[in-house]
Fold:
Amino acid sequence: MHTIYNLSIHLASFGLRIVALFNKKMKLFVNGRKDVFEILQQKISSEDKTIWFHCASLGEFEQGVPIMEAIKKQRPDHKIVVSFFSPSGFEVKKNTPLADAVVYLPMDIRANAKKFLAAVRPTMALFVKYEFWPNYLFELQKKNVPTYLVSGVFRKDQIFFKSYGGFMRKALQSFDHFFLQDENSEELLKNIGFSNVTVSGDTRFDRVSHQIEMDNTLKFAEDFKGNSLCIVCGSTWPEDEVVLLNYINAAPENVKFIIAPHKIEADKISDFTSKIVKKTVLHSNKDEVNISDYDVLIIDCIGLLSKLYSYADIAYVGGAMGSTGLHNILEPATFGVPIVIGKNYDEFPEAIRLRDLAGLFSIRNAPECSETLNKLVANKDFRTKTGMISGHFVNKNTGATAKIMRHIAQ
Structure:
């Protein structure tokens, strides 16, 4: 099975290079990996002690941040190396001050794994949430590097729990300990013989709980909102914008919208804006107008969303109307905001838990979206109660970072 796996990775690598000729994102994926070992050579010397974090993408990086911050305090003599699989993580965080070196993870070929670990020489490796690369894991195990999964989530449909998943179950044996988000994941692992398991929770709760303590002031958002009720639509995709459009166009005069698309693509933003009948302005044009005169503000830049949620009375979090994956509902929840999402969220336990507590609402189509938003807008008591549920949900679930750090500090 290992031979078949290695062959499939080689074939995938070749196929991705072909696709990269025609796809911008895939070009970043392929070309970004060409400089990995040069970057490591520049940033990491033979005398350095390092700790390696691997994150699939941006969301996993955010989950890793509280642990990175804690480790920097606990082990200031260590350098932190962060690897990403996806361009959407690397391109945004390649200059993060939390890490001493940020690179793409080379494809999981045995030679790459050996070369990468020889360059990094980690004293500890932490994989965030998921992504299990057997050759890297086997090489870590050979080198006796303590390896942990943090904020891990498992589902019964994954290969580990299938009759033919023996090879991948063997890869899991490389982990010294699994720190999991929920009891369901714990039960799944125990059913296949793993007892080195702790349900520590999701480190994202710790991450977002710090946000409320920060200065979240954005003067333009303050001027835009004024005394109006504000709905912040974060990380939206075209599928989300389709269901939001009717409500935006028909919303009461006292309701304003801040919309932060997940992808900043001028043509798609222009297409969406052309369908909005309300007075609409782009963030990039905010200094050229009296922003308080507008009803809809489109954020055509990145890095502002976590602060923008502090201005929300209601939040719509994108990603779940299509198949791209629900974005972070905890960012608005920490501000005590009622949350609306799309229909595809079965793989997001925090959304299921908050829905069950009645702090989150899922909609399937445009009429349901309008109905839900109308109810939240019209009924202040209902809106306030729902927001309180969201805020308490975050407060009750902090502490995962401390649990993990107590273990790995031993």
Notes: The chain has a mean pLDDT of 94. The first helix runs from residue 2 to 19.
